[in-house]
Design brief:
Layout (H helix, E strand, L loop, with lengths): L1 E5 L7 H15 L3 E6 L4 H8 L4 E3 L6 E3 L4 H29 L3 E4 L6 H9 L3 E5 L11 E3 L2 H12 L2 E4 L2 H11 L4 E3 L22 E6 L8 H13 L4 E6 L4 H13 L6 E5 L5 H5 L3 E4 L8 H8 L4 E4 L4 H4 L6 E4 L4 H13 L2 H17 L2 H17 L2
Parallel strand pairs: 1-2, 1-5, 2-3, 5-6, 6-8, 8-9, 10-11, 10-13, 11-12, 13-14, 14-15
Antiparallel strand pairs: 4-7
Length: about 375
């Protein structure tokens, strides 16, 4: 089977890492893969290293900033369509050379893949990975609103894939009977997941915060919790691995400096291989209110680490409180501090929860299961045309 992927994100965030894991497994299964991206970036280097063919076509998404006025959102969408139509024929020429059996758009943020599939009369599947609007919004909304987007979705797609059931319920009104499936991201080969992992010494209790440092991820909630525990005399340490916009990174660094947290908080910056961050920690902290899946949550569990996560978005779908992690009230640093203190006072639970976390990861979050599920969707999509 020949699969063309439309990838909106050119950086090495969750969707790109999931895409690379999927392509790796599909190539092992004998499929041919090709990637279209709107711009150059770190993902291109990874594709080249893996010898995955790709091309750059500067399309636009079909989402707008949530705080924009309705008129401005519509204008943004119209500009996007105009640019996409301008580049559609060059993208079609690339596709005709590759001759895809199916086109898969790897994000809800762009409709370019669906437009291309309609033009080429090729089956199209769509991978939704983010909350657009609503309580858990990533800060973006569909430019044309629900009704028009729903009509386009139904016209151009065979199946919509969601990375969590929580996310599917968010979009359920727009599906209106359209075929959909929940497929959890694969974060590690099942062969590499060990149910018993070695932990570092239990003093200090070391927590990891991994991912982009932006307000949606709420890193200051973690810092305030650590500050509270430090003032209580609890021997706890936080390691932060992640990049982001300069102003967001400076806000985190400024808080650490102004509250004298340098002795118990370590800023690593952006880390390419987060495996060592997990193995040198006892647990992961996830403060985000709007995780549509939470790749770092699944990664930590694959490394046999319990997760202390905000009880919001899809995080409680992944974590069973008291079994493989703990849940705290989203946005509440005092409740997060209480949950960390509980783990500090019951250190025997770290290995117990870590064992259960690894078992769940081996059952739910392997790259093999991920690829098998997506492959089955592609086969069904092609067979129905």
């Amino acid at each position: 089977m020949r699969i063309l992927f439309i990838q909106q994100d050119h950086c090495m965030y969750g969707s790109s890492r999931s895409l690379l894991a999927l392509i790796e497994q599909l190539i092992i299964k004998g499929h041919s893969c090709f990637v279209l991206l709107p711009r150059n970036g770190p993902l291109v280097a990874e594709l080249e290293a893996r010898r995955v063919p790709y091309e750059l076509v500067p399309w636009r998404g079909w989402v707008a900033i949530e705080q924009f006025s309705r008129a401005r959102q519509l204008l943004s969408g119209l500009k996007g369509i105009t640019l996409n139509l301008k580049h559609m024929h060059s993208a079609a020429r690339i596709c005709r050379r590759f001759r895809p059996d199916v086109i898969h758009t790897n994000s809800a943020k762009t409709a370019f893949g669906s437009m291309l599939a309609l033009m080429l009369r090729v089956p199209h599947t769509w991978h939704f990975r983010e909350f657009l609007g609503g309580n858990f919004s990533c800060g973006l909304v569909l430019s044309f609103g629900s009704r028009i987007s729903k009509a386009w979705l139904r016209r151009t797609s065979s199946t919509v894939v969601f990375i969590s059931d929580t996310l599917r319920q968010h979009f359920v009104s727009q599906l209106n009977g359209l075929d959909s499936e929940v497929v959890y991201n694969g974060v590690m080969s099942g062969y590499n997941i060990q149910e018993s992992r070695v932990f570092p010494p239990l003093e200090p209790l070391t927590l990891a915060l991994v991912g982009r440092l932006d307000p949606l991820k709420q890193p200051l909630v973690a810092l305030k919790a650590i500050e509270q525990l430090r003032d209580q005399g609890v021997n706890v340490r936080l390691v932060i691995a992640g990049g982001g916009q300069q102003e967001d990174m400076e806000a985190v660094a400024d808080y650490i400096g102004s509250h004298r947290l340098g002795m118990c908080v370590k800023l690593l910056g952006e880390v390419k291989d987060t495996g060592t961050v997990y193995t040198e920690s006892h647990a992961l902290v996830v403060c985000s209110k709007g995780e549509a899946f939470g790749r770092v949550t699944a990664e930590a569990m694959a490394y046999g680490r319990p997760v202390i996560g905000a009880n919001a978005g899809a995080t409680p779908e992944l974590i069973e409180h008291g079994s493989d992690g703990l849940l705290f009230r989203a946005g509440d640093p005092h409740d997060l501090a209480d949950k960390i203190r509980y783990l500090f006072d019951h250190k025997d639970l770290i290995s117990y929860m870590g064992f259960n976390a690894a078992k769940k990861a081996k059952r739910e979050f392997t790259t093999e299961k991920y690829a098998e599920s997506i492959e089955r969707i592609f086969f069904r999509c092609c067979a129905s045309t």
